[in-house]
Amino acid sequence: MTTPHPTADTPAYAPGHAASQTKHHEWRTAQNSAAHLLPHLDRLAQQTPHLKLLDVGAGSGTISASLAAHLLPHGGSVLATDISDAILSRAASHATSQNLPNITFQRASVYALPFPDGEFHVVHAHQVLCHLPDPAAAIREMLRVCAPGGVVALRESDMRMWCVWPEREALLKFHGLMVDTLVANGGQDKGGRRLVSWVLDAGAGSLGRGDVEAGFGTWCYSEEGDRRAWGEAMVERLRTGQMREKGIELGLTTEEGIEEMIKAWEGWIETDDATLGIMNGEVIVKKP
Amino acid sequence: MTTPHPTADTPAYAPGHAASQTKHHEWRTAQNSAAHLLPHLDRLAQQTPHLKLLDVGAGSGTISASLAAHLLPHGGSVLATDISDAILSRAASHATSQNLPNITFQRASVYALPFPDGEFHVVHAHQVLCHLPDPAAAIREMLRVCAPGGVVALRESDMRMWCVWPEREALLKFHGLMVDTLVANGGQDKGGRRLVSWVLDAGAGSLGRGDVEAGFGTWCYSEEGDRRAWGEAMVERLRTGQMREKGIELGLTTEEGIEEMIKAWEGWIETDDATLGIMNGEVIVKKP
């Protein structure tokens, strides 16, 4: 039942990049997933002729592309990094399909960003720290490459802050399985509430509480189209994703358990009064 | 260990209106607690020369006053109701202190609103349903007094969706006590996730899912001033409020347990990386 944990030296994206994992990620945009950053981005873009934004752990890159589109009229640009070449090439295809000339891609570990100190005006990471065994080390590196006067913007799910209606038993078990596999992979189940704490640790005295703005944002899946987008992604993930293999391997669930979860999500999609709420911690760090 | 539950026939605000209960409520405004309503309110106020808004279960009335201030330039007005004359007179004093000529107050039960069908363009309730044994009956009554084309706006905590950092044991126990006393008083601990379901029940076929917009909003207490506002209100509530009496009466806690919770909140206020997140369900019902 022990499982190798990724460490600061051997970074990995434990959930993997199967289509089942990334499908729902592609629903994400700067508007629905980085709204806390946008007012700061606008403020900095107005002050900075060629603003440079680093998007760390960009994954399928839909938020990165959407940030690039936001910066295009201001002359700003985005560099999107990930540890996986495969997902970066998918992200690049997406950017091409959006006709975005101001975004580039580069493989990099968040623990060792291959950039000089203060290189970027904005450094952004979305749902990245929750997969890492040492989130404060990653934030320290993001702070290093951020220019004084710039901002580091973080958003992380608080995986325990998840509520579903109706509360079918198989859906509650699904939530338990999701949290347990994340933790078994060395991830963080309470990222949302811990963001401020990680940031102050990472700052190691160079940041005061006044340099950090904290809040929470949510995702809600309740209208039919949103239920379908979420539910179908979860069904695919249960059919083919890492959650199934890992969950069975760790003895957290069984083939039958997985089949029940699939049926429960399929039923949930068709349920008119179904709702799913997820809460994310959001932090803006103003680098002194 | 049994306790009389309020019913649809004998409404009561179980937490009571001691200063310790209402102090934190006064932090609330339309901006931080009814943001989901404001775009609809602006749209309706532009169409409607003398818009009438009913605020149900207004309590200390700071949200009501803030809605009245918002409507003042448009010629709209607010009628704020509550089941307690005492709290309404406090709400009226607050409105007077704000120089608001367009708000009036009237005692009323949410289960039997003393108004004709379709009397109001907007009907609003904030953290009211979670105290009721029959939320759908209350929503049915709010729908009745709402004019066709108007909106019913609801916002309810999902009391289980509460996360605190650092996770001191006494703070987790406090959360458990808060939820348990609410439920023991006949309240609803999962209001946020159930709002859509209650609304469709209340509509009894007259509402389709397309008439209901659903989302979630949050409160975050993390910056020093917000930590102090929340923490001091919780300490006061533990010292003198209904939670202490009820918790001890029901055997949910002890005098010593309460004292530990007080110490834990006092320490939390002084903790630089402390954070509290709370998630609220938000619904806009467009009355057909």
TrEMBL record, chains A, B:
GO terms for biological process: methylation. Residues 54-153 form the Methyltransferase type domain. Residues 1-23 are annotated as: Disordered. InterPro entries: Methyltransf_11, SAM-dependent_MTases_sf. SUPFAM superfamilies: S-adenosyl-L-methionine-dependent methyltransferases (SSF53335). Keywords: Methyltransferase, Transferase. GO terms for molecular function: S-adenosylmethionine-dependent methyltransferase activity. The keyword Transferase applies. Belongs to the methyltransferase superfamily. LaeA methyltransferase family. This is S-adenosyl-L-methionine-dependent methyltransferase.
